[in-house]
Automatic annotation (TrEMBL):
Entry keywords, A to Z: Signal
Matches recorded under SUPFAM superfamilies: Periplasmic binding protein-like II (SSF53850)
Keyword Signal: yes
Listed Pfam families: TctC
Gene3D superfamilies given in the database record: Bordetella uptake gene, domain 1, Periplasmic binding protein-like II
Family designation: Belongs to the UPF0065 (bug) family.
Record organism: Roseomonas alba
Protein name according to UniProt: Tripartite tricarboxylate transporter substrate binding protein
Signal peptide: 1-20
InterPro entries, alphabetized: BUG, Bug_dom1
Length: 319
């Protein structure tokens, strides 16, 4: 029997392939990841590492290069040859860094080749399990009574920080942004009740939700998610804001030959049609995007422009 999910997976488009580029790959492929092992970005790399390696007949070697909100990894990719042997599993901070850093050692658009956008992790508004706030409306009313209420984020310029700045304007509240060094300490402060709320990625928090330490109030993305079926979107409760949910996709250095781009994109999109792989993404709090090169390129360009406006208006800067 075909389920709605199997029909959706069957509808994942493939890229019209160009002619094969020689014998690529005839040596190991490097996958650079700009965050530590164990996080949502690394999860996607580890999930696809072996299946892609089997398709390509070559090992894929993962290099975690954390630091500076992915800038270190981005620079390493930008300086690599565009021969298809270096791919970058990038998070969406790639599209926001240009807005929050005064200077970057690369050009966000010109120095990279969009290949395939794999999945997103919805941004979710969380409070602790013992919080008195059970709805977004109750939280907003409390923030209006108490201007300067603290909201945590995983850091200046993070997706949660962007979501907070957009949300507070929509809700008409004044808040104090408390930036932590990563999502885990921010979530711990919210679970303890020392900070009332946070916008955080679902993939990084799903285990804490299942353990009962966090309470989700609303999904920041455009649709409800399967692993939190009873949680409404912000739009459903009257606070429609642009989607800041981080995405995770493959980029290459500039000038990767189109046949190699198509090969990587098609093989990745094919794997996303695999029910086992798709289920692992969904169970981890992800939403499959399956965007080919053109759609992914358009998304990045759109988000670079939108993030610049938000960062300017909210004075989001990373020193």
């Amino acid at each position: 029997m075909l389920t709605r999910r199997s029909l959706a997976l069957a509808a994942i488009p493939l890229v019209s392939p160009a002619r094969a580029q020689g014998s690529w790959p005839d040596k190991p492929v490097r996958m650079i990841i700009g965050y530590p092992a164990g996080g949502p970005t690394d999860f996607g790399g580890r999930l696809l590492q072996d299946p892609l390696g089997r398709l390509w007949g070559q090992p894929i070697v993962i290099e975690n290069r954390p630091g500076a909100s992915q800038v270190i990894a981005s620079e390493a990719v930008a300086r690599s040859p565009g021969d298809g042997y270096t791919i970058f599993l990038a998070a969406s901070t790639h599209a926001s860094n240009a807005a929050v850093y005064a200077r970057l050692p690369y050009d966000t658009l010109a120095d990279f080749t969009p290949i395939v956008n794999i999945y997103a992790s919805p941004t979710v508004l969380f409070v602790g399990k013992d919080s008195p706030y059970r709805t977004v409306g109750a939280l907003v009313e409390a923030a209006k009574r108490d201007p300067g209420m603290a909201f945590a984020s995983s850091g200046n310029g993070s997706s949660g920080h962007f979501a907070l700045e957009i949300f507070r304007r929509k809700a008409g509240i004044e808040v104090t942004h408390v930036a932590f060094r990563g999502g885990a300490p921010a979530l711990q402060e919210v679970m303890s009740g020392r900070v009332p709320a946070t916008f955080s990625t679902l993939s990084g928090a799903i285990g804490l939700v299942r353990d009962g330490g966090l309470r989700a109030l609303a999904i920041g993305g455009p649709v409800r998610v399967e692993v939190l079926p009873g949680i409404p979107t912000l739009a459903e409760v009257g606070f429609d804001i642009p989607d800041t949910s981080p995405w995770y996709g493959f980029l290459g250095p500039k000038s990767v030959p189109r046949p190699i781009v198509d090969r990587i994109a098609n093989d990745t999109l094919g794997l996303l049609r695999d029910v086992t792989i798709a289920r692992r993404i969904v169970d981890a709090g992800g939403v499959i995007l399956a965007e080919g090169p053109e759609a992914f390129d358009a998304r990045i360009r759109r988000e670079v422009a939108e993030n610049a406006v938000i960062a300017r208006d909210a004075n989001i800067r990373v020193e």
